[in-house]
Amino acid sequence: MVTGGQVRTIHRGLTVLRAGLVLALPITVAMLWGSFPKRADLTTDTTPFASQPNTEPAARDLAWYAPLWQRDLKQPPIPPAPRRVSKPSKERDPLPVLLATLVQNDSCFAHFRNRRGEAQLRAVSELIDTYEVLAIEAGRVQLRRGEDLVWVELPKENQH
Question: Among 1, 20, 79, 150, whose Cα sits 20 to 30 Å from the Cα of 35?
């Protein structure tokens, strides 16, 4: 239960807080009012002069803004990325040999023989030699090296 003394204490505290806010409001308004810039004169001289070009914002073309942005605004904002043409390499790393695949509900593994002849067990997103394992399906595995995607399948005599 709240006693009468506690209510009076809360009332005094709220009164002091209200007085502080009332005193702070004019000071805050004065500080903010002084920090805003004065209004600019937006009227333009409509007298035509042959020596001065029309500098109204609606009449300016993109060439007028180009020095401000330090680039030609008629061009795309981001230069297109150069197209990479991959040259087919005649010296291709030998693909790992797929020995078996294990596909269950939540886990998939592939059993490989790497280029040194060692047997290795790999899951998705792991590396085998210079290839990354992307997908494992029953009987085949998708590998990626750089931008090259390759499917490696079980040899015919190992499939059951």
Answer: 20
